[in-house]
Amino acid sequence: MTKDEIKGFLVGYSAEIAEELYGLYTKHSTLVGFSVRKGTAKRVLKTGIVKEKYYLCYFEGKRREDKPKTPKCNVEISNKKKSKQQAITRVGCKAMIRVKKNKEGLFEVVQHVMHHNHSLTRLPWQHFHR
């Protein structure tokens, strides 16, 4: 498979194991300039066999909002540790592929969203991706 084929639209590709398509998507993401993480998997209720998987852009989702902490007593503690500033890594990006088991028993890419709402990594720094 050439770089141009991997860099393009992935709907229609199929494999016996979903991990092979995950590998294909990670190659795609490296060429385009983003990282991939595994999302949810849907299983058959009785057998527990995976029938559908999602592989997402690393920036998918939103940062969890912490609940405001209220002191349990009226005594103030002066030696509080300051919380470390954490970079915002989740910005709600919708880029992903959806892999589903077809009638032949193969996993097939049935949906591929290619639009990112964040900047992509430039070529010299793409080797830093996970």
List keywords for this structure.
130 residues, alpha+beta
Topology:
Elements: H1 3-7, E1 14-15, H2 18-32, E2 36-43, E3 50-57, E4 96-101, E5 107-113
Antiparallel strand pairs: 1-5, 2-3, 3-4, 4-5
In short:
Helices cover 15% and strands 24% of the residues. With 130 residues, the chain is α+β, with helices and mostly antiparallel strands.
Q: In words, what does this structure look like?
A:
It is a single chain. By secondary structure, the chain is an alpha+beta fold. It has helices at 3-7, 18-32, and strands spanning 14-15, 36-43, 50-57, 96-101, 107-113. Strands 1-5-4-3-2 form a five-stranded antiparallel sheet, covered by helices on one side. β4 and β5 form a beta hairpin. The longest helix has 15 residues, at 18-32. The two termini are 22 Å apart.
Strand content: 15-25%
Distance between the termini: 22 Å
- Main sheet makeup: 5 strands, antiparallel
Strand order of the largest sheet: 1-5-4-3-2
Helical residues, percent: 10-25%
Contiguous helical run count: 2
- Unreliable spans are none
C-alpha-based Rg, rounded: 20 Å
Mean pLDDT reading: 79
User: Would you list the SSEs in sequence order as H and E?
Assistant: HEHEEEE
Q: Report the count of strand segments.
A: 5
User: Which overall shape is indicated by the principal axes computed on the Cα atoms?
Assistant: flat
Q: How would you classify the helix and strand content by structural class?
A: alpha+beta
From the structure provided, what is the oligomeric state, counting identical versus distinct chains? single chain
